[in-house]
C-alpha cells in the first residue's frame, strides 16, 4: 500500500468559517492522508446529540451515533464530518435511512478496511429504534471496544 499524497486533496473547510450545509447531499465530506497506512487501528467518532427530522411529522428525532472505522489510505477530516452530521438537523428521513446513509457516504469517501456505525435512536411512539450498519468482519487482531451505549431503558 502506498502512502497517499497529503496535498492531493484540497481542504476547503478547515481553517475557514463554514455554516451548516442545506442538506446531507449538499455537505462536502473531505479526507486527509492516513499517517499509518497498512496498520490496523480503530478510529471512533461519537455524536451523542445527533438530530434529524421525522419525514412524516416533521418533529425532531434524536440519536447517539458511534462511528468506528479502520482506515485504509484516508481519514475523514473531522470538521467536514461534523458539518455533514449537522446537515441532518433539517433533513427528513427515517432512522434507518439516516444511519445507513452516513455509513455509506463514509465508505464511498474513504474506502476503509472496515467500518461500522451504531445509531442508538431515542424513542419515537414509545419504541426506541437502534440501527447498525457494517461493511463486513473487522480485521483480525483489531482491538474493537464495545460501543458503550446501553439499550434505552426509560426511567427503568
TrEMBL record:
Pathway: tRNA modification; tRNA-queuosine biosynthesis. It is found in: Cytoplasm. The keyword NADP applies. Its main location: cytoplasm. The active site is at residues 54, 61. GO terms for cellular component: cytoplasm. Coiled coil: none annotated. InterPro entries: GTP-CH-I_C/QueF, NADPH_dep_7-cyano-7-deazaG_red, QueF, QueF_type1. One of its GO terms (molecular function) is preQ1 synthase activity. Transmembrane segments: none annotated. It catalyses: 7-aminomethyl-7-carbaguanine + 2 NADP(+) = 7-cyano-7-carbaguanine + 2 NADPH + 3 H(+). GO terms for biological process: tRNA queuosine(34) biosynthetic process. Pfam families: QueF. Substrate binds at residues 76-78, 95-96. Keywords: Cytoplasm, NADP, Oxidoreductase, Queuosine biosynthesis. HAMAP family: QueF_type1. Catalyzes the NADPH-dependent reduction of 7-cyano-7-deazaguanine (preQ0) to 7-aminomethyl-7-deazaguanine (preQ1). Belongs to the GTP cyclohydrolase I family. QueF type 1 subfamily. This is NADPH-dependent 7-cyano-7-deazaguanine reductase.
Amino acid at each position: 500500500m502506498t502512502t497517499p499524497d497529503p496535498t492531493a486533496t484540497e481542504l476547503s473547510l478547515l481553517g475557514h468559517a463554514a455554516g451548516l450545509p442545506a442538506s446531507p447531499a449538499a455537505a462536502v465530506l473531505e479526507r486527509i492522508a492516513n499517517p499509518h497506512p497498512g496498520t490496523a487501528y480503530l478510529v471512533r467518532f461519537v455524536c451523542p446529540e445527533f438530530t434529524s427530522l421525522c419525514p412524516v411529522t416533521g418533529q425532531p428525532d434524536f440519536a447517539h451515533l458511534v462511528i468506528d472505522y479502520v482506515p485504509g489510505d484516508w481519514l475523514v477530516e473531522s470538521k467536514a464530518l461534523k458539518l455533514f452530521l449537522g446537515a441532518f438537523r433539517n433533513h427528513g428521513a427515517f432512522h434507518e435511512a439516516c444511519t445507513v446513509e452516513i455509513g455509506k457516504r463514509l465508505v464511498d469517501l474513504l474506502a476503509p478496511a472496515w467500518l461500522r456505525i451504531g445509531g442508538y435512536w431515542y424513542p419515537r411512539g414509545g419504541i426506541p429504534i437502534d440501527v447498525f450498519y457494517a461493511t463486513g468482519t473487522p480485521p483480525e487482531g483489531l482491538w474493537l471496544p464495545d460501543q458503550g451505549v446501553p439499550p434505552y431503558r426509560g426511567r427503568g
